[in-house]
Amino acid sequence: MRRRLLRGTVGVLALVALAVGGVAILLTRLVPDRASETCAVVLEDGTRHVLDADQADNAALITAVTVRRGLPARAATIALATAVQESKLRNIDYGDRDSLGLFQQRPSQGWGTPEQVTDPVYATNAFLDGLVEVPGYTELPVTEAAQTVQRSGFPEAYADHEPEGRAFASALTGHSPASLTCDLPGQDDAAAPAEAVSARLEQDFGIATTAAGGAVVVEASALPGQDPQRLAWAVAHWAVATAVDTGAGTVAVGDRVWQRSEGNEAQWRPAERAPAPAGTVRIS
What we know:
Shape: globular
Number of strands: 9
Oligomer: single chain
Number of helices: 10
Order of helices and strands: HEEHHHHHHEHEEHHEEEE
Region (Disordered): 262-284
Protein name: Heavy metal transporter
CATH architecture of the largest domain: Orthogonal Bundle
């Protein structure tokens, strides 16, 4: 009897395992593996910093707002390190007590309504409004500058995220050309990303654009600053980092081009067509 019961139990467990395995396989096929969608910044010394595509999208938005405001790259470094520590660069709808959003800002502490602090553009501007009021913030350690704004219970933790904050800030402000690439799923054959790209450009950078021939052409001179080539790289890297949202498949800047279709081999390669004028970015 015991042997029969044991054999029966083993058989049931085997069937359960097969069923669970089958469900897992089905889910793997039906649900995209978002962890495989990554963006990386590779520094001149070979150091590599990686975020998943959702995090990189938020990093691009945060940095675009600093560029839009004409703030130095150090502001982006501090903001990114803060958001990594507070929310892992995710716009979350929960947190300690009533903390919400990218920067875990608390409506009860005067940061805004729940709807406002979970709006990434509003939240970023609210953080930067506080940061620019900190005397000499560009010269302060990240921990001190961030803590003056945030009043966190764990202020030392901000410094832990300065390396990736600085790397992505440098790329997304255009100070490190051709350093940011993403490994994303192939572009939908039916995709028409121009409208989505234009909407994000207006939201993040405050740039109004028009699409022509299925592409969006951005003149970096529309942004504050006196270095159009650097600003063009800021927009180009932003376009790559937000491509999972907009559906963009090709980004060209100067004589370089990034093509999503190359997958994990996607790099900034010499463009086959004539190079774009300095300070111009073409996104399609």
